[in-house]
């Protein structure tokens, strides 16, 4: 199967890449608007845009207070949180897969979600007895920071972070956190338990505008920084020595990527719970489409992750109306088949 | 550009891996770093760029200490063909070679036409231009090494470092790669296993044993039979090559006498 000159081995390359990027932006806008419209009370997309525009431009609601409340107070923050969480987890996945050069790396590799879960579950079951003032999100964030700190301390040697030690320490800390979470769960009453399960599987339901600020800022900041690091991340993804030879400050970049991915994961997990699968699979799916170049991988993962989670959240609240399902169930149930199809269609590369 | 390592010492957890090693690579010459497995030749080579920071000693490329000049500066001065290329990712050959432009680029710079021309010329130089749109990991070992040399050329650095570049290559690919490197005329330092290759392709050799530089100098002065016996545990001789007439380094086991196959 000889290849003609000038044809990239990646599915989408050259001018088609710009088209893909533009298409994803359009898809994000429309899926957000559509997802805001759909729910127990359906609001037409045109009406949604009207209300959102009214708030953004003049800071006032529309003429219909009920629709306004549903759209602006309930659904918009929820859908935006889904978008932010999808973008953040996907970016974190790219960072970590590059950092440890392991295709199975996901944002929860370093025990972030285990620590966050423990914090959240303690807060949910003891109901603020122990963690007064922190709240569930605050407790989760504290838990994730503590577990990250333990992992980093364990995995560093003379100030240098070792990839394999990071993975192993992360696995151990996660196991420890999960054990403690399991214990706390067993002590919980039935109503608490349901809330705990919901949180553990991840959910953006009940999101308020106040929940959105921190993760959105974290995603915006790290995304802006990451988009400048594409070349260096390419070099690092090939090898530490190679990256050093190409003039990358390998140690500094590794630490920066760790901080970036931890910030993304901890802020997202603390408000949206342990939404699984997105951070693992979106980067891989995007690589199968645009190839491994981080200058393309990062922006496409950000957008694709956001669109994916907005749509998945839509499914979780429409499939069994008026009941809601945890989002984590559907990220895997919908994402895995899609990924398998991509994998089967992977362009033949003479392996 | 001259490469000088002075008193380089590498310690890992109180174990001395490299012990006060000195090395000089003259501009435009090929310097071979040789030694048995585990002698520290790869470690010493990794100290010549910023892959490994020595616990003591200094490495100068040109006049500048590589750890003072900054990572990007190091990338402009030395290009490296390392041994760690991960084959799990689907970078195309063009993408791999384009990485060589990294130290020349500011954060948000895009690839320009000039960058592409430099990369294409480098690929042509190693006769791999036909493979530009292939996935790097699908190439043969020899082809991959040539692409990595092309990436090094794209870096346009005056110094080229190669870490056992002929590992796992068939003999044809080995000689092809070494011919290529020799013809580039860069200041080259290569860690090499094959002592005959070291004799044939290097202007100077640095013999490493047990983390120390035992001797350095022209191949004929370094690879004398007594020293080769002591360091590598083999008998050796230099004979005129029957095809080229050049010095040919040959070895034989010290203990076992090879038997002709019993009729």
Structure, described:
- The complex is a heterodimer of chains A (351) and B (263).
- By secondary structure, chain A is mostly helical.
- Chain A has one domain (15-344): ABC transporter involved in vitamin B12 uptake, BtuC (Orthogonal Bundle).
- Chain A is built from 14 helices and 2 strands.
- Chain A has a two-stranded antiparallel ribbon with strand order 1-2.
- The radius of gyration of chain A is 21 Å and the shape is globular.
- With 263 residues, chain B is an alpha/beta fold.
- Chain B has one domain: P-loop containing nucleotide triphosphate hydrolases (Rossmann fold, 3-Layer(aba) Sandwich).
- Chain B has 10 helices and 12 strands.
- Chain B has helices spanning 41-47, 66-69, 71-77, 93-98, 113-125, 141-154, 171-184, 195-201, 219-222, 225-232; strands spanning 3-12, 15-25, 30-34, 56-61, 64-65, 78-81, 159-163, 187-191, 204-209, 212-217, 234-240, 247-253.
- In chain B, strands 6-7-8-3-9-10 form a 6-stranded mixed sheet, sandwiched between helices.
- In chain B, β11 and β12 form a beta hairpin.
- The longest helix of chain B has 14 residues, at 141-154.
- The N and C termini of chain B lie far apart (58 Å).
- Chains A and B meet through α9 and α10 of A and α3, β6 and α4 of B.
Helices and strands, with pairings:
The complex is a heterodimer of chains A (351) and B (263).
Chain A: H1 15-37, H2 45-58, H3 65-100, H4 112-126, H5 135-155, E1 156-157, E2 160-161, H6 163-187, H7 190-201, H8 209-226, H9 230-238, H10 240-245, H11 250-272, H12 278-290, H13 294-318, H14 327-344
Chain B: E1 3-12, E2 15-25, E3 30-34, H1 41-47, E4 56-61, E5 64-65, H2 66-69, H3 71-77, E6 78-81, H4 93-98, H5 113-125, H6 141-154, E7 159-163, H7 171-184, E8 187-191, H8 195-201, E9 204-209, E10 212-217, H9 219-222, H10 225-232, E11 234-240, E12 247-253
Parallel strand pairs in B: 3-8, 3-9, 6-7, 7-8
Antiparallel strand pairs in B: 1-2, 1-4, 4-5, 9-10, 11-12
Helix pairs in contact in B: 5-6, 6-7
